[in-house]
Design brief:
The chain is mainly beta and 317 residues long. The chain has helices spanning 2-15, 130-140, 248-251; strands spanning 28-36, 47-62, 65-79, 96-108, 113-124, 156-167, 170-171, 179-190, 193-206, 232-247, 270-282, 285-294, 305-316. It has one domain (2-14, 26-316): Outer membrane protein (Lipocalin, Beta Barrel). Strands 1-2-3-4-5-6-8-9-10-11-12-13 form a twelve-stranded antiparallel beta barrel.
Amino acid sequence: MKEWILLAGILFCTNITAQEQQKTKFSKEFSLVSDDDAYLLQRKDKYYTAGTFFTLNVAKEKKGRKKIIAYELGQTIYTPLKPINSSNNTIDRPFCGYLYLKYAESIFTQKDAFINYSIALGTLGGYSYAENTQLFVHQLFGLYHFTGWQYQIGNSAELNSNINYAQTIIVDNKENPSFKIVPFIQLNLGTTFTNARLGTYFCLGAFEKNSNSALFNAGINKKRIPTKRNHELFFYFYPQLTMQGYDATIQGSLSGNSNSHAVTSFTNPFMYQQNLGFVYAQNRWSTKIEFIYQTKECSTQTLSQHYGSLKLSYRFN
């Protein structure tokens, strides 16, 4: 039920602006992202169980280039396949929670490219309140309760950095484009995640340049900038390959595990993921809906992963 309540809210907010024109520039944007495998009507949690992200984006300008500063509060929750775990033998993916604060900057160039970098400070283990969040949500919607959280990854402070680069390499029509290909490179280095990811966006529909597109949270501007359309409406396919170096949500913290009962595992060296998404943006509101497939993250994992992601953004001055 929770997935339909959130989806109905997203559709309502976007529909109320369906006939409006973008007559005003907006320099700030607040967004909420919710990831959950329940959005695929599976009626069960597993692996990457849930993620919730609150982000404030602020448009700036640096040496004539558009710049967006982002402040984000996020929480991710990970659990094994089985909800009842009376011993550590049934845990195929470690219990873990990650709570963080992140600062990020995105700088856009005239060649339809951008670079994004960030730094995040967070915590693993009980201090992430992952168990409390899952228990609250499951009680609220009458779902089953996971047992086995006593085996979760222990408490530790975490510091992570990230850098991304993307640039459009193919577009079918510069004046009125309907298809484009955008390679995307991502590097993560930190005490929680160390990996490298290479993927490519294949976009089809009505979209703006990367510097003004909701696909990259760029629908805000410090000053008025002409756009090709009064809205965006497009689909995208985003396959990606990740080379995993270290994942503390699976292997435990690099600083040592304060939970002597914690169950850990080993990451698979390579992981494939594909996202199929839909974006609609007009005036103050934008929406993104994604369906994600992901191969096994760790060596003990029984199944691959499927989950959905819903995003709602509101722009303002």
